[in-house]
Amino acid sequence: MVAIKVHGNPLSTASMRVLATVYEKEIDHEFVFVDMRAGEHKKEHFLSLNPFGQVPALEDGDLKLFESRAINKYIACEYADKGTQLIYQDSKKMAITSVWMEVEAQQYDPAASKLGWELAMKPLLGMSTDTAVVEENEAKLAKVLDVYESRLAQSKYLGGDCFTLADLHHLPTLHYLFGTQVKKLLDSHPLVSAWIADITARPAWLKVLALQSQQ
Ligand SMILES: N[C@@H](CCC(=O)N[C@@H](CS)C(=O)NCC(=O)O)C(=O)O
């Protein structure tokens, strides 16, 4: 059987999201490094995988996909019998997990990604941080984290009693935010902090970080 191909860059949050899923599912895969500094993601070959010219992209035989969260849903369904169960078979349980997957994408990620860009990436690129953007998005993130704190008082993980894609999708942005002033905000939410400690210690996630450190 031909292994799936994950095209991406280990420094990209969206690529890390898919790699975490591939490692959780323990499926054979080929990681195709996309050299973003060389602009490979804007060249014809990559644009045939994702017309928006953004990593990651997935090839599974004839199937070509982009958008990290859609790729992860596909992998979790198609390889349901392998590795960690990242979704539920029960439709009501899955509906609840889907709610929290949407919360991650629509409420958490916009603020988390802006903070990651301002506080982690811009300093690395020698650009100056916009403090007004940081203030605005810390306030937005604080509201989301208050909701998470209540949710995690009722349920061990966001999507239910088991670790699912609803938790996994947070890992890359949490990783970058942990090295910034936002850690203080995360630490001020005890149940959120315990959840972060739990999900970031997963062996599959440590493999993603190991791959990243080889770059
Ligand atoms: N919603 C997309 C976002 C993809 C994305 O923004 N990828 C970034 C790296 S994390 C990228 O390729 N940026 C280069 C660009 O936009 O030109 C996903 O989840 O896959």
Report the span from N to C terminus: 28 Å
Share of β-strand residues: 5-15%
- The CATH architecture term of the largest domain is Up-down Bundle
Spatial arrangement of strands, main beta sheet: 2-1-3-4
What fold name stands as the CATH topology of the largest domain?
A: Glutathione S-transferase Yfyf (Class Pi), Chain A, domain 2
Family: Belongs to the GST superfamily. Phi family.
Catalytic activity: RX + glutathione = an S-substituted glutathione + a halide anion + H(+)
Pfam families: GST_C, GST_N
Subcellular location: Cytoplasm, Cytosol
List its traits.
8% strand, globular, 4-stranded mixed beta sheet, single chain, alpha+beta, 215 residues, Glutathione_S-Trfase, binds glutathione, glutathione binding, Glutaredoxin, glutathione transferase
How would you sum up this structure, described in words?
This protein is of the alpha+beta class. The chain has 2 domains: 4-85, 3-Layer(aba) Sandwich (Glutaredoxin), CATH 3.40.30; 91-202, Glutathione S-transferase Yfyf (Class Pi), Chain A, domain 2 (Up-down Bundle). It has helices at residues 13-25, 44-47, 68-78, 91-124, 131-154, 165-168, 171-178, 182-187, 190-200, 203-213, and strands at residues 4-8, 29-33, 57-60, 63-66. A 4-stranded mixed β-sheet has the order 2-1-3-4, with helices on one face. β3 and β4 form a beta hairpin. α4 packs antiparallel against α5 (131-154). It starts with a strand and ends with a helix.
